[in-house]
């Protein structure tokens, strides 16, 4: 009678969730909308412009053979460039190049398109260097909120870096391969995070519904009575006020003659 | 300090308590009642007949059935009245006794005079014949609760109750006795063992498993035969994800606030100490008929 173990009826769980589908749907939609407006909408689009350079160690004129050690040396040179290009000297050279664009030699680049002021520190943060597929090709990426600015800064960098590297690193050289011509638009509002959040909240809502039902000690069905005692349920009286008592085939059965006729007889 | 479970019950009782609304007979079966409801009671009648048929031959008062519930508001008075009505439809002579003297409603449902009733008969058994309301619905006779006595439990357990059952069980084919909820007062337990058995009304989405367990334990201790359980107020979408076992928690406490909801007496109310004719004005026009549950049934 007092069996402390109970199993969960999966069909009943599904039916329970279906009955509360509107709550789950509401939670899903609300969380989706809230997450979208709170997380995705404030995002500012970012433009990323890239220029490529070829960077290599100088090869001894007596030994024209290209070896693996040469390549690894070039890759190390790319890393070195990544550090060098963030130095004050390099950044100042880039700013000087950019000043020729804005026409004012004041150590600050003011974009003629966006009107944004870029200090040397801003430029330092915008530039990233990386090796393309572990080759000797170095990609200079500039990411900022203006497409024009991203392209301009990337091209200024790619103009300055070869000479700078050759002056500083005597054993290496760099050549411009491609200028930046366009910028990829990124950091756009997406649906992935809101969708994940909405699904998570909907799952949480399902869990809460099931938990509430599990903790509900009220008797709902004859099965609940059977779980408590062995006394048979000999009658099930529907809700007298429920509209369901007026619906359905069995509810209407009497209205089509049989029930009334026999009752009166 | 009441337990959380009992606080929930008290809140639920407050929510469903419509004691200021007089009980009407709109919940009783009639020609306009929905087919589903009528058939549900007829099914109950059939199942009950099977349960009664299985009674041992030496069962006392084989045709007397006690209707009760665990807590107020589960619909036992309505169930008792409607069961009596469907039993009458079989051509049987049926007496409906309102043994819930603290919170009587049958006289309101059938719109009967309640000056004389069960309490009168238990004080003076000779008043039985004149206390019964005859032919309320065809062959349905009703013995209302009568004046509110100071000691309903003792009256129901007194020898006069047995005498009364002896008399009515000889005259009627079926005697339906509407009693107070067993978890609140023990009135039903005092004489239920002297009948064919007890029918427990349990309202869906209202009665809790701990309440039902407690009621069944009380009945078991009193050695009352339980004929069955009637699930009342069933909703079509009722489901439970727990398929077996218990897993229920919660303790029991006293229903110490029960008087507030109709059972018992208020401080100003002077219970009748003399035969029913001298009952108080409040008792003559009981305006605080219970209405627990959905307002359709009392407990």
Write out key terms for the chains shown:
heterodimer, A: 265 residues, alpha+beta, five-stranded antiparallel sheet, 17% strand, elongated, B: 299 residues, alpha/beta, seven-stranded mixed sheet, 14% strand
Structural summary, described in words:
The complex is a heterodimer of chains A (265) and B (299). With 265 residues, chain A is of the alpha+beta class. In chain A, 51% of the residues lie in helices and 17% in strands. In chain A, the strands form two sheets. In chain A, strands 1, 4, 5, 6 and 7 form a five-stranded antiparallel beta sheet that branches. Chain B is 34% helix and 14% strand. Chain B has eleven helices and seven strands. In chain B, strand 3 (132-137) and strand 4 (140-143) form a beta hairpin. The longest helix of chain B has 19 residues, at 35-53. Chain B starts with a helix and ends in a 15-residue tail after the last helix. Chains A and B meet through helix 1, helix 7, helix 8, strand 8 and helix 9 of A and helix 2, strand 6, helix 10 and strand 7 of B. Strand 8 of chain A pairs parallel with strand 7 (226-234) of chain B, so a sheet runs across the interface.
What is the end-to-end distance of chain A?
46 Å
Q: Which sequence of SSEs, written as H and E, runs from N to C of chain B?
A: HHEHEHHHEEHHEHEHEH
The coarse silhouette of chain A is elongated
Strand content of chain B: 5-15%
Shape of chain B: globular
Q: Report the average pLDDT across residues of chain A.
A: 81
Which regions of chain A are unreliable across 5 or more consecutive residues at pLDDT < 50?
A: 245-251, 253-265
Estimate percent helicity of chain B.
25-40%
Q: If strands are numbered along the chain, what order do they take across the biggest sheet of chain B?
A: 3-4-2-5-1-6-7
Give the averaged pLDDT of chain B, no decimals. Answer: 76
Supply Rg of chain A. 36 Å
Could you estimate the helical fraction of the residues of chain A in percent?
Answer: 40-55%
Assembly of the depicted chains: heterodimer
The helix-and-strand class of chain A reads alpha+beta
Pick out the low-confidence regions of chain B.
1-20, 244-262, 264-299
Number of strands of chain B: 7
Structural class, from secondary structure content of chain B? alpha/beta
Describe the largest sheet of chain A: 5 strands, antiparallel
